[in-house]
Amino acid sequence: MKIGNIELGERPLFLAPMEDVTDIGFRRLCKRFGAAMVYTEFVSAEALIRDVKSTISKLAISDDERPVGIQIYGRDVEAMVEAAKIVEQAGPDLIDLNFGCPVKKVAGKGAGAGMLQNIPKLLEITGKVVQAVKLPVTVKTRLGWNHEQLIITTLAEQLQDCGIQALTIHGRTRSQMYTGEADWTLIGEVKRNPRIHIPIIGNGDITSLDAADAAFERYGVDAVMIGRATFGAPWIFSREQLTVDEKIDILEEQLRINIERIDEKRGVLHTRRHLAATPVFKGIPNFRQTRIAMLRAERADELIGILEQCRELLRGHDDVVTGNQIPREV
Fold first, then answer.
1. DSSP-based three-state secondary structure for 307
2. Spatial distance between the Cα atoms of 45 and 51, rounded to a whole number of angstroms
3. Does residue 280 contact residue 245 with C-beta atoms inside 8 Å?
4. How far apart are CA 159 and CA 321, in angstroms?
5. What is the pTM of this model?
6. Catalytic residue list contains 101
7. Among residues 151, 196, 142, which one has the least CA distance to residue 172?
8. Alpha-carbon distance 329 to 320, whole Å?
9. Exposed, middle or buried, 299 (CB in 10 Å: 0-12/13-18/19+)?
10. Buried/exposed code over 96-118 (b: 16+ C-beta within 10 A; e: otherwise)
11. Of the listed 30, 101, 162, 310, which one is catalytic?
């Protein structure tokens, strides 16, 4: 599979762009374990053109995570075009346009999935961004605003006509948010459309490599994107069977990476959500209190102490931790 001139191999797995999750340290871990493409946290076009420091920092990428995409969102045509030009200067391998984020603070203001209620503007933004930059431009979106407006089969052709070089489809509507089950049937329909020649990437409820394999087989997609199932499990992209000890070592490494990248306080804060969500500790009885302690930890030694306690509780019990029972992705 290729996006533009980017060679991604057969049946590639992508790391979904996720706010406060897909920082540079996490992306590099996922890349190490086999993610074919990774994406930054999504970036506000308005904040980017206003030169907001915290937003500019999201553009930092490293060569060892390539290929890497930077995703932008917004509702204003001129702002999105200007933001795309700024992003191009940061040197990613592609630029992705977010027309799928369902959260109120984004979609409620007409950006993200909110653009699904204004298709003419969505297409205008797409076309003008494609014309403004030399990098491949891709789009991530949903099936439609709600089940009365399942527009993706038509929209996919329209986006292709705008010049995008790949399309990621999350198998839910905006009204579903993150509830219910992802419906891949329309994703498969888009892929089977003889008029579609760009790669189609499927997204939604992929919680294991077996689920990804089934999606490739059943729906014929070119790639599969994994979201929330990566929380606390950057090894999900690998077919290697890791032990509990090895997984805990990786989680401790993630903590160290974040502390070195930011500082101890914020590094702990940024990492503990991954630790509380990791499937590694699902085999520990009455884990709730330990999980609460993880979420309250403020120092690195506190968090590592909790991890080491969990390691001792699970030592010799790799059979009870499958690593596959995890929350649905976004």
1. helix
2. 10
3. no
4. 42
5. 0.91
6. yes
7. 142
8. 23
9. exposed
10. bbbbbbbeeebbeeebbbbbbee
11. 101
